[in-house]
Amino acid sequence: MKTKTIKFDYKIILIISLLLFLALTTISSSNAATPLYVNGADGNDTWDGTTPTYTIGITGPMKTIQTAIDAVDNDGTVNVADGTYKEHLTINKNVNLVGESQEGTIIDGNNTGRPITINPDMKVTISKFTIKNGNSSGGGGITNNGDLTISEATIRDNTATEIEGYAYGGGIYNHGNLTITNSIILENTVIGGTAYGGGIYNDANLIVNHSTITGNIANSTDGYADGGGISNEYGIITINNSIISGNAATGDSVYGGGISHSFSSNLTINNSSITGNAATGDSVYGGGISNWGAIITINNTSITDNTATGNNVNGGGIYNNGDLIVNNSSITNNTATGDSVYGGGIYNYGDLTITETTLTDNNASDAEGSAYGGAINNNGILTANYNRIVNNSPNAIYFDTESGQSNVQYNWWGSNNPDFATLINGTVDYNPWLYLTITTNPSTINNGATSQITASFNNLFDGTTVTPLDPNTGHIPDGSPVTFNTDKGSIGSKTIDKETINGLATATLTADETAGIAHVNAVTDNQTVNTEVTINPKSSLYLTITPNKTNPVVGDTVIYTLKVGNNGPDTASNVVMTYVVPEGLEFAGANVDTGTYTYNPTTRTITWNIGDVPVGDPYMWLSLKILRSGSYLINPTLSTTTYDPTLNTDTQSITIHATAATNNNTQVKAVSMQHTGIPLIALILALFMVIGGMVSSKNK
Questions:
Q1: Are residues 415 and 471 in the same domain?
Q2: How far apart are CA 317 and CA 256, in angstroms?
Q3: Could you tell me if 508 and 452 are in contact, meaning their C-beta atoms sit under 8 angstroms apart?
Q4: Residue 260: in which H helix or E strand, if any?
Q5: What is the DSSP string of 315-345?
Q6: Same-domain status, 501 and 608
Q7: What is the pLDDT of residue 683?
Q8: pLDDT confidence of 1, banded at 50, 70, 90?
Q9: Which of these, 180, 260, 374, 640, has the minimum number of CB atoms within 10 Å of its CB?
Q10: Is 543 helix (H, G, I), strand (E, B) or coil?
Q11: DSSP code at position 665
Q12: Looking at the structure, do residues 458 and 406 belong to the same domain, yes or no?
């Protein structure tokens, strides 16, 4: 018996072994990347965290977030159920933390430490959490040294305390890259000898999108208070579509109730609101924003209702000692109050360019009268063009001619002939300025039609000559209010409020009443401009015809009642009705209750000169005799010198059908026996007598 020898190819075995090893490694890696789950109420830190609820063995959620962070693979995700987690997390890997809900998933520092610390170079996302009750130096709620993204989160009620006299970031201290989206930074506090950033302190890169930073406090006990909402030093900040409101900074020297920005850093604010912030202290710089030696660009942003209060007060809305550019924004109702007060809206000691921006109702006030510049106090370089500068107190602009430069041409000052002696203190180049006009198109309309009314600020005035302005070079801020009024017709009602776009505001006048002159005006601030629209009268004539016989025959005279009416709204003037009597009918007379009529037998034309027809009903009673059978059209026409868009469309016409007369009406008639007047029996007897006589004669 032969035996078969089996030979092994060791190269094949080696390849298979390597493939198995790689497969097992892949499976192991896949398992390690599995998201982990945390449930503070039902979890256990001895379980593997791979399922949101307990299943079997050690399969179920973990209890604490820190345990899950330590266990999850790098770049992994930790899903956290609603609940309160009193933890102080340290994150030393790339991780995604996802809460069940923003309000319900809470990391609570319990006022014994910082809830979250992110180590350098870590990439972390935190979403749908509330982070509160932290208490620590250098970031009460969060310290970020890595790359952190926060979304749909609330950072609230955290406190940053001082170390060696300095405290930073009541809510967040950012020393890395931080992006905040759809989140709330609420009622955090930084307190210390020098306090920086009640809500956020940033010295690196910060982006804030669609978020609210409100109610935060920077409280200095013995030094500087910087930024009730945000303090930025040497960093770069971009704020988009966000609200910075109700924040406060207090201390001896105070910079920015809302935002403090300083030291060669860059801040850009777009489509946002800086409102209701307060800076209070001995020396105060910027109730809303303070800029010290840095660069700020503000676009389409509202800076309103901010206050600065103290002994030496500079800028109720903004203090600028750097480079500040403001475009298409509003700086309104800001207040600076104290002993020496400069700039209710803006104090400028740097380089300020402000364009197409509204500066209204700002106030600088001092009980002793040493307040300067209701809208702007300028001690630097000021370029302000195409702005609306109105109703600021004690004046619009205070200009320090010893240290500043100003170009404030092409602005709207609240009237076509502003009193610059009251508005401006100092030597300022304000000429020319914007000038308001009003036009109509068209200026004459028929009743029921429309005219476009245009209020235009696209004009320049030098005190003598008005010249047109191309709005592409600049114009009054979009959204500037214009009120249109009319005493006749309607512009929606008698009054309508509109806003400017590209220097124009428009309204549509509808002539929906009686004719006449519509006196229309446009009002902006302290200026009223007037125009007129002539409204031509409009009538709406109609005519109805009613015959007294509907089936006439030849020889009949039919009386037609012609009723001319006017539906208005205005009197129809010089109304004339004409009708040509067709062959086969004969004019048999007429009566009218208004006006006069004539009949021309040559042209067979009836002309009824009615005159003016108010809203009412003149009548004619027209008699026509039927001469021949046939169909006849009764179709009078109307004319008027008054505009009537429906003339003769409501004029009735009728057709009559005259038939031949019956036998007793014909010219050739058969005598009816019963109508001769001779009895029938007598005729018979007479006939017999004639016959009898004839017979007798023949017999003779």
A1: no
A2: 9
A3: yes
A4: strand 259-262
A5: -SSEEEEEEEEEES-EEES-EEEEEEEE-SS
A6: no
A7: 36
A8: very low
A9: 640
A10: strand
A11: G
A12: no
Same domain for 524 and 625: no
**Any idea what the Cα angle at residue 558 is, between residues 554 and 561, rounded to 5°?**
160
Shared domain for 609 and 522, answered yes or no, is: no
- Which CATH number belongs to the domain containing residue 607 in this structure? 2.60.40.1170
φ, ψ (nearest 5 deg) of residue 198:
-60, -40
Distance CA 330, CA 213 (A): 20
**Number of domains forming the structure of the chain:** 3
Are the C-beta atoms of residues 79 and 52 closer than 8 Å to each other? yes
Q: Is 485 helix (H, G, I), strand (E, B) or coil?
A: strand
* pTM of the shown model: 0.83
Cβ-based neighbour number of residue 680 at 10 Å: 9
Strand partners for 209: 181, 240
Give 438-479 pLDDT, tens digit per residue. 999 999 999 999 999 999 999 999 999 999 999 999 999 999
Q: Please list the residues that pair with 309 across neighbouring strands.
A: 280, 337
With a CB cutoff of 8 Å and minimum separation 6, the contacts of 7 are none
Describe the strand order of the beta sheet including 433-434 as a list of residue ranges: 433-434, 459-461, 466-468
Q: Express each pLDDT in 246-274 by its tens digit.
A: 999 999 999 999 999 999 899 999 999 99
Give the residue, 677 or 493, on which the prediction is more confident: 493
Q: Which of 482, 508, 536 is the last residue of a domain?
A: 536
pLDDT band for position 700 (50/70/90)?
very low
Q: Answer with the one of 399, 431, 463 that is the final residue of a domain.
A: 431
**Cα-to-chain-centroid distance, residue 340:** 40
Which of 455, 410, 454, 452 is CA-nearest to residue 434? Answer: 410
pLDDT band at 424 (very low <50, low <70, confident <90, very high): very high
- Which residue range(s) make up the domain with 374? 300-431
The token duo for 205 is: 């890169």
Asked if 474 and 564 sit in the same domain, the reply is no
> What Rg value do the Cα atoms of the chain yield, rounded?
48
Residue 12 exposure: Cα atoms within 13 Å on the Cβ side: 3
* Residue 137, domain member (yes or no): no
Is residue 23 one of the residues assigned to a domain?
no
322 & 375 share domain: yes
The verdict on residue 214 lying in a domain is no
d(CA 335, CA 320) in angstroms, rounded, equals 16
Task: Compute CA 159 distance to the chain's CA centroid, rounded to the nearest angstrom.
Answer: 40
The structure tokens listed for 16 are 């298979």
Residue at 232 is within a domain? no
CA angle 259, 260, 261 (to 5 degrees): 115
- Together in a domain, 559 and 643: yes
Q: DSSP per residue over 508-539, as a string?
A: EEE--S-SEEEEEEEEETTEEEEEEEEEE-B-
Token duo for residue 381:
């370089």
